[in-house]
Give the backbone structure.
Amino acid sequence: GKFANEPKRSPLLVPINKRPYNAMSPPEILMDHYYTPNAIHFVRNHLPVPKLPEDANSHRVKLDLKDPTNEEKVNRSLNVTVEQLRNDFPRVSYDVTLACAGNRRNEMAQWRQARGLEWRQTAVSNARWTGAPLHLVLKKLFGLDLDKARKLGYRHVQFEGMDGDSITGDFYGASVPVEVALDESRGLLLAYEMNGEAIPADHGYPLRVIVPGAIGARSVKWLCRIALSRQESSSFWLRSDYKTFQPSLYTPTVEDFVRAPAQLYWPVVSAICWPPDGHVIRDGYGADEDEVVQIRGYAFSGAGAGVVRVEVTTDDGNTWQLAQWCNLDDAPDDVDDSLHQPFGQRWAWRLWEATVPAPKPGQSVTIACKAVDDNGNQQPERWSSVWNARGLLGNAWHRVT
Ligand code: MTE
Ligand code: MO
């Protein structure tokens, strides 16, 4: 059947849908690693896992220059294998946090119903992705840089996955503007390794695009075609799915989806991964003044903006304390001062911790966090101002009781 190619999955993942498979990372274990182990990286599949080639190196990707005046016509076409990408191009690695745009929809939907899978706060993971820089591939094979591509009338680089329905022709796809795709500093990779290993089946083996700082939806897995075009990808998910609307629009129409811009980058967000919401502390704990609760979480922003600080409150935002950066064993040495990624290329999360006084026995405390990024942008306090019909980009203060 359609689901004949599903891989074995770690029992530590927290599934929220079986077919197609969708699973959150286990929040507590997620906080134990700077680089999320491949086995517990969250999984977001819109379709069955496609039949994958046994030999990664001989996998071919089609590169097409579409006719800028006719989307149906291809002016130039060639193939490149993963082996060529490995041998003929520099091997570049970036630390990138991927997050599904639907992350935290579960909380947003508690404010008002929103359409989609109810992800909690761990449709987020961080990995070191290795591959060939996209701009170099297009330069070498087509002689195209951004200037030339724009002059020829190209506006978007489209990506197609191998997963889809061969009868309807509905394959997963996405695109990014040429200004992003062909700019070296934006860091787009044609990735063949994830944390130093071949990319696992669920994460796009043998080749995927990585679009740093963007919503996960742009990082197309199981890549089989790249096309330069005047138009955005015609994929349902690019055109009619990953888009946000004003809070007053409860049920966007087809026309609303057509008009709205496709979401590319993430805003600033942080969330608490330990303790879980509703966590009960051991009996009698908190009787002493100096008894405390340890809190841990993540923070990241979009488009290469780094997180400069995370703040925590236990009185609904009247007073705040600064969180500390975690220094995990597997993290790069300079990760705690964010120097490990250059300004404008801070694509990886920062893990943080804070200590708050324990509630007295029989009482409870609600902890909230928010992050501030390089641009001074901060998370909004309430869901009411960011609620949108598709439940995307959930970044209100994260609260745990
Ligand atoms: N690529 C293909 N080919 N098919 C998909 O369903 N899902 C996208 C993106 N790339 C998807 C895809 C979405 S919405 C997200 S959030 C990320 O992959 C998830 O990446 P991951 O499963 O490796 O965590
Ligand atoms: Mo996603």
